[in-house]
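Troubleshooting: if your tokenizer reports a length mismatch, compare your output against this known-good record of 193 residues.
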Amino acid sequence: MAIFERKETLPTQYDAQNDKTILYYNADFNENIYNDEVFVELMNMYALEFINGDSAYKLQVEDLETYGGDLAVFFYDFFTTVRNGDHEKYNSYFDSRAFKNREKASQFTMQQIYEISIKELDITPEFEDEYAWVSDASIEPIYVDVRYKIRKNNGTFRLGVESDTVKPQMYIIYKTNNSFKIIDILEYAPVYS
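Known-good structure output:
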């Protein structure tokens, strides 16, 4: 018997853009990520990095509203929902019209998300007709560069990204009376590094 014999086959996905295979961890819907000391240490380094212009602030939970405002609080709450594996609450963060372009999330495991970074972008991208309802509804979209890492990514929440790596996304959101709603989440080439 070989010393490094694998007893089970782990899920994989081929990444054609980078010509490599992504190996995912096995999904365990009973795992409590908060029992993993390494993850808890990573998560507690800071709650969220808020980038404003050329300044970056690594904020603790108690500083989110003061230094990051409503946007930082929204994303912290959003990613706490993802960490907790609550797909129903996750879906509630989206405008109902967003599901014309995307499927509602089905069940996913708790996610070991850490090193969350957000930056509001000063851009106005041109989109196709699938977002026509945004301008029709007099919604002023906000574009946010969002980056994070997933320790032991099992692919139940996000495919196409290896464990402990960053793959930037653009969140298109808008402000409501007391929070934000997500219009869409797009993979994109970052405009800052």
